[in-house]
Amino acid sequence: xxxxPASIDRALRVLVAPDKFKGSLRAAEAAQxxxxxxxxxxxxxxxxxxxxxxxxxxxxxxxxxxxxxxxxAQVHGPLHDQGLVPARWATTGDTAVIELAQAAGLQLVPAxxxxxxxxxxxxxxxxxxxxxxxxxxxxxALDEGYRSLVIGIGGSASTDGGFGCITELGLRVFDAQGHAxxxxxxxxxxxxxxxxxxxxxxxxxxxxxxxxxxxxIASDVTAPLAGAQGAAQVFxxxxxxxxxxxxxxxHRLALWGSLLEHQTGTDVQDVEGAGxxxxxxxxxxxxxLAEVRSGGDEIADLLGIxxxxxxxxxxxxxxxxxxxxxxxxxxxxxxxxxAAAAGATVVAIAGRSTLDDEQLARVGIRRLATLVExxxxxxxxxxxxxxxxxxxxxxxxxxxxxxx
Length: 404
What we know:
The longest helix is centred in the middle third of the chain and has 22 residues, at about 245-265. Helix content is about 35%, strand content about 20%. Strand 1, helix 1 and strand 2 (about 45-50) form a beta-alpha-beta unit. The protein contains 17 helices and 13 strands. The radius of gyration is 22 Å and the shape is elongated.
């Protein structure tokens, strides 16, 4: 017989706020399934479903689930020969929410020839991928009158330093001979020994509406633009870059960062978060058009998570993989910290986890269960995630001791 968890003498108030289980379930689907399991274990529980995102794929979905208005557009994809791709963005109140992955996401770049679907792109694709389409989405939001923008930048295919986006918005780049540089790959031909001597930026055609717009870049990555911990070195391989391509990308971002600093007076090379999404935010930071914030915190605030935590006994967080990278600012861990600080018991359900008890305790997670433990193998955990999630949630809540 199922009973209400100890120490709660009224209906248990549960906030279910997972991120996506990548490759298996969207965040909203995961929330529904977890809720089903909790309802079986504690039939009279008051369950609030608030699927979350931290700036990557699923950010627009999270806002739509919360009641935002959906907009659709056709914009340029990350590859020059790709043409237009369908992209969605959302509006809530006076804020427009844009997801970089909709226009420049890794899922839009095909795997290299001879590889299985879902494998990494080829090195030349890693070098060519750009963010032009993101600039088009920003311009569409400005056209609709929005002057508050949140841009989620996870899941990118590009390492163009935001070149495609900012030039789409009107910034002009010229080489030492005065020729316009219209493609980020043209930076690769400039001799690094000469630095950015003679190159210049021209902001005369930059969209003037940007100056009256508040832009928040929601990121879950703290990497700098260049260097050993920078965008190319850390994230280039997952976008298809081999050793030679990474050298090229490193040179490109270092040159681009130097040019931005030289022309604007703002050093973006070592700014925390400037290397996220292949350096996307660097020109927006340099031109003082945007601020980088924690994606988990920023989006949680916009989704009303803080208000929900005031009336929560147990908070359930989750995602496909809880690991070391999760500790660097991923949405579920950020939410776990906030929920624990608010006095809630924090439960985590993940596809898999590599975190030890000490790491979990440090971020406020009291109980952890994984689908891999339930399924026996990672393959089955991904394949049967929809069936396993309710089972795992039911087992946790059957024995949970929730203390406020």
